[in-house]
Amino acid sequence: MYAGIAEGAKALGLDPKGLEAAGRAIEREMAAGVIPGAVLAVTRHGKEWVYAAGSADPSPDPDHPLPAGPDVLYDCASLTKVSVTLPLVLGLIDDGVLTLGTKAAAWIPEFTGEGREEVTIGQLLTHTSGLPADRNIHAHGWTQPQMWEAVTGVALQHPPGTAAVYSDLGFLLLGRIVEKAAGMPLDQAAKERIWEPLGMAGAVFAPPAGLRARTAPTEYDRGAGGHLQGVVHDEKARALGGVCGHAGLFATAGDLARYARMWLAGGAVPEPAAPGGQPRRVLSAAAVRAATRTHTAGIAGANRGLGWVLKGDRWDASGDWMGPRSYGHTGFTGTSLWMEPDLDLAVVLLTNRVYYGRSGSVGVLRAAVHNAITAAARD
Length: 379
Hints:
With 379 residues, the protein is α+β, with helices and mostly antiparallel strands. Helices cover 31% and strands 12% of the residues. The chain has one domain: DD-peptidase/beta-lactamase superfamily (Beta-lactamase, 3-Layer(aba) Sandwich), CATH 3.40.710. Strand 5 and strand 6 form a beta hairpin. The longest helix is centred in the N-terminal third of the chain and has 16 residues, at 16-31. InterPro entries: Beta-lactam-related (IPR001466), Beta-lactam/transpept-like (IPR012338), Diverse_Enzym_Activities (IPR050789).
């Protein structure tokens, strides 16, 4: 029924019925008009299985159709937070450049006044900085310096450390801190410290013209006169040039599966080490342990790691069967990455659900896919 399912299930130690059930869940949402298509990547025990269905672009140039597939780049939206900004911050902590207690104002001096100078990098990572969820900086005709001034001057909604409010603004600031601390642009740091070591060959910010034909279009944009393709969907990131700490990453399902394998491997590059040698690392094992344990004990409705959503958080999309140590994240465009370390399992689901507008939800689909695949684990 599904290409390669028997071989994939055997390699991953999964019941093939679970992979078939995940495929049927995707097809149901396609038939209901929720998504035009999807790419699913499942990785376990160092192996990977990829399934694609439907179209990445339901109304393409008839001479250049774009079916959903392993080579299609998807706008990852907020997966940027945990797939780019988070590991870069953790790596700089590993290097002794930053700490979780470092004040954001130490690197962004203008982020001061009215309590902002007390906000730490750890609070930005856990969304407990007190910052509001968002601010419209893109619709006023402001210059980029004016937009940054609006971000650094936004009023806190809560005293730092007292409430969890998921905030794009916090990761915008973290992206700027990374650039200053690493001494290079965010996209260059991502390439050198994450993408190249892990072999994430498709990962990119602001895809060049030559790559746009294989990027999944997102929402119809009246100003552009068509669906956005190869242009970041998030308005703030678009106004700021497409390279930001909270959004802007484009990647394939395979890219994100390789990234997930690094986390499941405790920060090591997932490849055999040379005889007698040590595995190469993107992150320390200590950083992985710290990022995947709770940092929001005592805050109602929140169970947040560093960047990651943990089991039981209000944003938890792991489904019913993933265990208490599972963690992951979602993206507004219809993307998600979830891991179950006790099963050595990671699930990447990429859709461009905003192709049909912002009202549709893939929440049911995520839960169904995660349940089916977790239930399929044989050990």
